[in-house]
Structure formats: structure tokens, C-alpha cells
Amino acid sequence: MKGGFKMLRNKGFTLIELLIVIAVISILIGIALPRFKGMQDEGNRARAKGELRTLQTGVESFKIHSTNSALPTALGNLTSATPNIIGTALPTDPFIAGNNYGYGTNGSYYAIWSAGPGGTTTITGITNAGVISGTAGDDIYVTNGDVASGG
Questions:
Q1: CB-based burial label for 95 (10 Å; 0-12, 13-18, 19+)
Q2: d(CA 97, CA 100)
Q3: Residues 66-88: pLDDT tens digits?
């Protein structure tokens, strides 16, 4: 017998090799998913801050251009204001699908807020002293009151 015994091996993966590959892929997915959620929240936070600044500009413009220098009673009034900064539809809160941003005014002060990453709004309006009512928590907000903008 010239050359001895030949080892025959099937060309393919064994069950152990397949299980190891699946385990490695599972670990990589487990690492990537939380990071993706964090990046998504970061993007929504940036979007909310930008839209809140635009709404704040719209409210200030409404006040400047109204005949009696009054704040709008609702954000919906901004879509028909002149000059029109917002357009024909209000932006929606990225943290609560399909819901508009919150708005409260007492005639002198206003506050506009987003639910924030927690998805629950804890701000309820603004007091006569210009202070946010409710708790800011993780809400994102802008105001012309005594509390610094941004939440």
C-alpha cells in the first residue's frame, strides 16, 4: 500500500463550528442593539431641540406681528400666522408618535415642551411668575420665563 490510509473529510462545517459562528453573531448583535437605541434617542433629542427652537421663533414672531402683541393661545395658530415660519402643519414630538409638542401660556409667558426620551410628559404649563409647572424630568423645553431654556 503505497501512501498509507487516506483521511477522507467531507467539505462542509460541523455542527460545533456552526454553533460557534451563531454564538459569535449573537454576541455582536447583543453589543450593537443598545448602542443603536442610544443613537436613536440622541437623534430624536437633537430633532426635538431644533423643532422647539423653530416653534419658539414662530411664537415670538406671532407676538411681534400680532396687532395687540399677544402670544398665540395654541401652537395651531402658528400655521396661519403672517409671516409663516412653521408652514401648514406643526411638527410632531419624536418621542410620542403622532402627538404635537406641548404648549402652555398665561398671556405673558409661554413654554413649549417635548416628552423627552422617557415618552411621558411631566410639564403641565407655566405659572404667572414665568416658572415651569410640573416637573421637567427628562422633558425638553423652551420658555421665555424665568427658567433657562432647554430642559
A1: buried
A2: 9
A3: 888 899 999 999 988 888 888 88
* pLDDT tens column, 88-100: 899 999 999 888 9
| 40 Cβ contact partners less than 8 Å away, ≥ 6 residues apart | none
Whole-prediction pTM value? 0.75
Q: Dihedral (C-alpha) 71, 47, 79, 96: value to the nearest 10 degrees?
A: -90
End-to-end CA distance of the chain: 85
Nearest-angstrom CA–CA distance, 151 and 137: 8
Bridge partners of residue 125, in order along the sequence: 133
Backbone angles phi, psi at 131, to 5 degrees: -110, 140
Cell representation of residue 65: 406681528
